[in-house]
Amino acid sequence: MSNVPGELKYTRSHEWVREEGDTVTVGITDHAQEELGDVVFVELPQVGDSFGAGESFGVVESVKAVSDLYAPVGGEVVEVNEALNERPELVNEDPYGEGWMIKLKAEGSGDLLSAADYEKHLAEEAE
Amino acid sequence: MLREAFEEPEESYGLLQALLDEVGRGERGETALIFPCSRHVGVTRMDTRRPGFGRAVRAAEALGFPVLERRSGGGPIAANPSTLTFALFYPVEDLRRGIYDRYAEGTELVAAALGRAGVEAEPGEVEGEFCPGAYSVRAGGPRGVKLAGLSQRVTRRAARLEGIILVSGTKELAEVLERFYAQLGAPFRRGSVGDAGGAGVPDVMLALEREVRSRYGAVGSRLDRKTLEEARSHVGEYRVATGGRI
């Protein structure tokens, strides 16, 4: 069973969002990292880049596949987790902590799910 | 099914991207694509960051193999016109699901097609293989030879399972892979590079086509001008410059 922290919000494409004022921290969920397998490379944008909600902001490469990452809300990138350059495995080891990916200065709220709704989404997808 | 290799390998990569985009936009349903490769080495984005990559690129180029960055997982691969590209494109509802099912489907399909061409093959990893992983097709068990390798590219609305199938002319592939992996300091066993025995490229293409038709009821179709134009618009995205990390 995947870990779904109650204080975070989620997308249907399995990113998580931690809201702190007008800044949001973004990563991929425990479920996403489990499905991807060992993450070997994460390509992230640069500080100052802007994305619309739902737009691809990067790419995660695992031993299984290369797949896109999607911005849960629109906004400007204000910080990038540089540690993932050297230690992409943090995404597997600590997806909600040291494995965070970007911080955005949010513009708008996006179509986000509560933890309960995300768990329901996972259950529906599993059926 | 395209019977001739592209003049430049970038064109084939562009086509793989264009079809993925079309499936993702809902303009095209499930699609299979089969064609002979152009001579090249394909690497992942991660490979381009590895120490020794610049030397590896120069070693490949010295043997006549340009190096392209492919947008799927795994490790360095080498191909020539006696190698086939096989790809399946799927619309997806959830990009974080289905990876394993698609691999199982793809490896079984390729193994079955090789069987139709008279080559005994099974899904499974090979010791010391290029682009190592569980999603290979092999002959001779774990210490045998690799016949095909598969990888995936997944976006929100579409996924592409793609692979290369080693049919013949593999001596030069083993040579370039040996040099490339040596420069990266990565393990590689030259004897792990297999081929389809006496079967030729047309035989394996036909076997793949029959397998796809029998599994999916697929019908042939032409690539229209719009798809080809979109494919051409991507060709500048893949070639790796020689000045990588030394």
Automatic annotation (TrEMBL), chain A:
**PANTHER family (UniProt xref):** GLYCINE CLEAVAGE SYSTEM H PROTEIN (PTHR11715), GLYCINE CLEAVAGE SYSTEM H PROTEIN-RELATED (PTHR11715:SF3)
Q: What is the protein's name according to its record? A: Glycine cleavage system H protein
Keywords of this entry:
Lipoyl
Q: Which domain of life is it from?
A: Bacteria
Query: What role does this protein play?
Result: The glycine cleavage system catalyzes the degradation of glycine. The H protein shuttles the methylamine group of glycine from the P protein to the T protein.
Q: Which cofactor does it need?
A: (R)-lipoate
CDD domains, per this entry? GCS_H
Q: How is the cofactor bound?
A: Binds 1 lipoyl cofactor covalently.
Q: Which family does it belong to?
A: Belongs to the GcvH family.
Gene Ontology BP annotations? glycine decarboxylation via glycine cleavage system; protein lipoylation
| Residues annotated as domain Lipoyl-binding | 23-105
Q: How does it assemble?
A: The glycine cleavage system is composed of four proteins: P, T, L and H.
* Residues with the N6-lipoyllysine modification: K64
Q: Name one GO cellular component term.
A: cytosol
Annotated Gene3D superfamilies: 2.40.50.100
Which NCBIfam families does this entry report, sorted A to Z? gcvH, PRK01202.1
